[in-house]
Design brief:
This protein is mainly α. The protein has 8 helices and no strands. It has a domain of 137 residues: Four Helix Bundle (Hemerythrin (Met), subunit A) (Up-down Bundle). It is globular, with a radius of gyration of 20 Å. It comes from Peiella sedimenti.
Length: 239
């Protein structure tokens, strides 16, 4: 793993990996969509239950992407590692997209189930704050012209945002919320009906492969961009 911290080794290792991840994501998304549409209706939610197959993976990857951003920010800030900074930057946009998708699909599910599009309960509010951290991270990087200063400032914000992750995860256990408790990852096993598990697990695997494909592609693109910038700087200095 630490050998891949070298940008040249990372680029060589991930070159054949990226198309495999994109292919896996495409196949899993197609399979997950088929499972989702062929799953039975829920006895209470009816066809609305199918929103869960998009919402739950999106929310999970929104959290996972920020964890990747935060850990990468730590290595970038403490060890001043350029590849770690590239990894943090590459995780921001897909993580924000997954989190926004979770917020939208949660609202679409909440209206027929709860009778309202939105409530400021602990889970919904903490996920919205997570989305704001993503936006703040990207805005901070864009607002500072000096790339080194932008990286350090954004890394600090990325680390601060990690505090919100356990709040999102355990908010339904710590407070009384309208949002239901976890039904998939539980100490006593999943409480969700087995008829919905193939669709949900396949979609979660598909979203995971999609995030890895987006993330690694983003890191590779950032490495290439920095190489071009460095080459132009050397050429300007030589001129």
């Amino acid at each position: 793993m630490f050998g891949l911290a070298n940008p040249q080794r990372f680029m060589a290792f991930t070159r054949p990996l990226v198309p495999l991840l994109w292919a896996a994501a495409g196949v899993l998304l197609a399979l997950g969509a088929w499972f989702s549409f062929t799953a039975p209706e829920d006895y209470q939610q009816g066809d609305t239950v199918r929103i869960m197959f998009v919402h739950v993976p999106a929310a999970t990857l929104g959290l996972g992407a920020y964890a990747a951003l935060g850990v990468s920010s730590f290595f970038a800030l403490v060890f001043r590692h350029a590849l770690a900074d590239a990894a943090a930057r590459a995780a921001a946009l897909p993580g924000a997209a997954f989190t926004l998708l979770a917020l939208i699909t949660g609202s679409l599910w909440g209206k027929p189930m709860w009778g309202t599009w939105w409530v400021w309960d602990a889970r919904l509010t903490s996920v919205f704050i997570l989305f704001l951290f993503y936006l703040g991270y990207m805005a901070l990087r864009a607002a500072i012209d000096d790339e080194a200063r932008a990286a350090r400032s954004a890394a600090v914000l990325g680390l601060v945002g990690l505090i919100n992750l356990p709040i999102v995860r355990f908010s339904v256990d710590w407070w009384n919320t309208l949002h239901q408790r976890a039904s998939l990852i539980r100490a006593d096993g999943p409480s969700i009906d087995g008829a919905f598990l193939p669709a949900l697990l396949t979609m979660m695997a598909a979203y995971g492969a999609l995030f890895l494909a987006l993330w690694i592609t983003g890191i590779r693109t950032e490495v290439d961009r920095r190489r071009v910038v460095a080459a132009r700087a050397r050429a300007a200095a030589g001129a």
